[in-house]
Design a protein that fits this description.
4 domains, disordered C terminus, Multidrug efflux transporter AcrB transmembrane fold, five-stranded antiparallel sheet, alpha+beta
């Protein structure tokens, strides 16, 4: 690898203008294509074998219009009821406008008998239940805006309009611009302090930005081929900025060192690309493999996040090993220009006295250092015991987003559970039939009531005639009197509606029994009347929980319905029922991830072990690295749980209450962190290994390796921490979780683990660090990270210098 990158570095430096031109053309082409075609993202919750996916499949087959449920277009009136005067006309016009939209299958007015429950008691809040053509996995932002624009008549009438459900979430993606600017600004300051010159600082920033722009555009194009989650571009930006700056920093630092040793520009570039570049390529490859390992989870949304993030890392590695050498050649020795006052970077020997003293202190007292590090990590990891996976809390989105406005209005008007209705999909082994027995009884009651009325009219007529009233007039008066004493018009309508219901297949006794059992569950606020397909083989109705979609109580309700209520209600019947809908889909996602997490961890750890075994030709180095990385990730999980689930400092990150951990965040975090932590492991241990090979003194190798690499590792880690932390400012709670989790993990890894735990363990293990069985040594390929052994020898005069 070193020789290949050495030649590539020479090539890029020698043909610097051609390489830069190729990069410019490639970036422009990708960006223009992405903007012309458009970027598509969607959240695919398909999970074969789960109740939510079975419900969707059943409804797709039997009741396709109800397969994705409905989304609410919420209307709020500040003056008067929605069912009166001008507001009433506006609501009707809005419903008609929505029905004309090509993106809408149907729209149910809150003023209609079917939608009467969608109007609040005070009449000031209502929502139009809209069934869209596209489901959550297919709806794009442009189509979503077209639907929302169709509600313009309500806006013109002065009504507040917002969109909920997956429609509202599609148009409620908080901007990342401020996070990116703050992260880049922090990186600039750190680079200026670490590198000491404006020219040197500009290169990592420029390469990282170019890499991020390219990577995000590629992710946008990828969305036209596969389902790419909505959070993927933001996650890609976070990772792309972090690794892009870090990878370039490592190469720039090594280049300046070789330049200061008297090498010519092209040779210094080539050797920096061969040494630090090989470590970058290997570390980046480890991150990519860890991310691609998420495919083994067999969860579409997680796999998509994995390979979309991997694209950004690949672009960062390619940019660092091709574009950066070309830019270094273009800049040449001018990289030392525009020095920062009072900053004296020690890139010549890169051994600041502070880090040297620290390294000697750890080496002198390895056991106390090891024990202290482990205790700190365990303490940080303790809250992990209470981690429980859930779904994003829309109620924590910024208040200026449509989804949050709809959420708050529905909560105010109908209760928080209305924001996450459950779809109950029912399959009949035999066609559904109406409740004929109840229908006959109702008809008998109506007939008896009619006979009683006729008898009463006859008696009253005879009495009036006896009083001398003419027969025709007596008949009319008697009918009026009996009608006034009989059931009201509303009661008669209700009776007719009941008759109509009992005459339909929706009154199937087994189906009604199931609805009643579910409605009696303490976690369910209300149940709608079922809709049955024409064949009588499928039905659907909604069950509204009493708690918020993201609440753990809602998870308990769904599990109780599936495990207890539905089996009891369908026992000895020909019904099969599934709990579906978006809320249930996220609950299934959390359950599937919880089940898959151990196996994915084992796969990532195993692959990382193999890679480090090849890189360092040692058995114990990858074993200790895996154990330490697991401790580091556990500490990050603990911090994440403490902040978001326990609410420790939630106000500081823009939340007003504790929220659950988004189900896929820990899984993605593990893959990302295990990969990124290998970066620092590679750069630290490769320096230690280089000294070990030269001197054969393990203790001294640890001291010199830590002293020479700690400064650049801490600078690189500080950049990542700042970049990730800046995304806490994003309004999306999921992005906040990634920001806090990744920043905390990198901070822990670069300080407690790399500067305390790793050196202490390596000192205690001594020469055993580098033990490798002879038979295995023959099998393993030689990578030679940070080594110049495979490179052409320097000219005598350069070597002497």
């Amino acid at each position: 690898m070193s020789l290949l990158l050495y030649r590539l570095g020479h090539l890029c430096a020698r043909h610097r203008l051609v390489v830069i031109a190729i990069w410019v053309l490639a970036v422009v082409a990708v960006v223009v294509a992405a903007r012309a075609i458009g970027s598509e993202t969607s959240d695919d919750l398909t999970l074969p074998g789960t109740g939510s996916t079975r419900a969707t499949d059943l409804l797709d087959d039997k009741l396709p219009k109800q397969a994705n449920g409905t989304v609410p277009i919420v209307l709020e009136s500040a003056h008067g009821r929605l069912d009166q005067g001008a507001n009433r006309k506006a609501v009707k016009s809005t419903v008609k406008s929505l029905e004309r939209s090509p993106e809408v299958q149907s729209a149910v007015s809150p003023l209609s008998p079917e939608g009467k429950d969608a109007l609040s008691k005070d009449g000031t809040i209502g929502y139009v239940s809209v069934a869209l053509v596209d489901g959550p996995a297919d709806l794009d932002e442009e189509s979503a805006n077209e639907v929302i624009d169709a509600a313009q008549p309500a806006r013109d009438a002065g009504l507040a309009v917002s969109a909920g459900g997956y429609l509202g979430q599609e148009v409620s993606k908080p901007s990342t611009e401020w996070s990116e600017r703050i992260g880049i600004a922090a990186a600039i300051i750190i680079l200026l302090l670490a590198l000491g010159t404006v020219a040197a600082m500009a290169l990592p920033i420029a390469v990282a930005i170019i890499g991020v722009v390219t990577g995000i555009s590629l992710i946008g194009l990828l969305g036209h081929v596969v389902e790419v989650p909505t959070v993927a571009p933001t996650l890609g930006t976070m990772i792309g900025l972090g690794v892009g700056i870090d990878y370039s920093l490592f190469i720039v630092t090594r280049y300046r060192r070789r330049l200061s040793e008297g090498l010519e520009v092209e040779e210094a570039i080539a050797r920096a690309a061969a040494t630090s570049g090989s470590a970058v390529a290997f570390a980046g490859g480890t991150v990519v493999i860890a991310l691609l390992s998420l495919v083994f989870a067999d969860i579409p949304i997680v796999s998509a996040l994995g390979y979309s993030a991997a694209i950004v890392v690949v672009v960062a590695v390619v940019a660092a090993t091709t574009l950066l050498p070309a830019l270094l050649a273009l800049l040449g020795s001018r990289i030392e220009s525009l020095r920062v006052p009072h900053v004296t970077p020690e890139h010549h020997d890169d051994q600041p006295h502070g880090w040297a003293r620290w390294a000697r202190g750890v080496a002198a007292r390895p056991w106390p250092a090891l024990v202290a590090a482990v205790i700190l990590l365990v303490l940080l990891a303790l809250p992990l015991r209470d981690m429980r996976l859930g779904q994003e809390d829309v109620g924590q989105l910024p208040t200026d987003t449509s989804a949050r406005q709809a959420y708050d209005a529905i909560k105010q008007g109908f209760g928080v559970g209305e924001n996450g209705p459950l779809l109950i999909a029912v399959e009949f082994a035999k066609p559904a039939h109406n409740d004929q027995q109840s229908l006959d009884k109702l008809k008998q009651q109506q007939a008896a009531q009619q006979h009683q009325q006729q008898d009463a009219v006859s008696e009253q007529t005879q009495a009036l005639i006896a009083e001398g009233v003419p027969s025709d007039e007596a008949q009319a008066q008697a009918e009026q009197q009996v009608a006034a004493q009989g059931p009201s018009a509303a009661q008669q309508r209700k009776s007719e509606q009941q008759k109509e219901f009992l005459g339909s297949t929706a009154s199937d006794p087994d189906l009604v029994k199931l609805e009643n059992k579910i409605s009696n569950d303490p976690g369910i606020a209300s149940v709608s009347q079922a809709k049955v397909d024409r064949t009588g083989r499928g039905a659907v109705f909604t069950a509204v929980p009493t708690t918020a979609p993201s609440a753990y109580a809602t998870q308990d309700t769904v599990n109780r319905l599936r495990d207890e209520v539905i089996p009891a209600a369908t026992k000895s019947t020909d019904l099969t029922a599934y709990v579906g809908g978006t809320t249930a889909g996220y609950i299934d996602l959390a359950d599937r991830i919880s089940a898959k997490l151990p196996s994915v961890i084992a796969i990532v750890v195993g692959l990382s072990f193999v890679l480090l075994l090849i890189a360092f030709r040692s058995v114990l180095v990858p074993v200790t690295a895996a154990l330490m990385n697991l401790l580091s990730v556990a500490a990050a999980y603990g911090i994440l749980t403490a902040v978001f689930e326990k609410g420790w400092g939630d106000n500081l990150i823009g939340l007003d209450r504790s929220i659950p951990i988004e189900s896929f965040v820990p899984l993605l975090m593990f893959a990302i962190l295990f990969g990124l932590s290998m970066d620092y492991q590679v750069f630290l241990v490769s320096r230690i290994g280089e000294v070990w090979r030269q001197r054969g003194d393990n203790r001294q190798a640890v001291i010199e390796g830590l002293a020479s690499s700690a400064r650049v590792i801490t600078a690189a880690a500080a950049i990542m921490v700042c970049v990730f932390s800046s995304f806490v400012l994003n309004g999306d709670p999921t992005v906040k979780q990634f920001g806090v989790g990744l920043a905390a993990a990198i901070a822990v890894d670069a300080t407690i683990v790399r500067c305390l735990l790793v050196p202490a363990a390596m000192v205690l293990l001594g020469a055993r660090n580098w033990w490798l069985p002879g038979w295995l040594e023959k099998l393993l390929p030689r990578v030679g990270l940070e080594s110049e052994d495979a490179l052409p020898p320097l000219p005598a005069e350069k070597a002497a210098g």
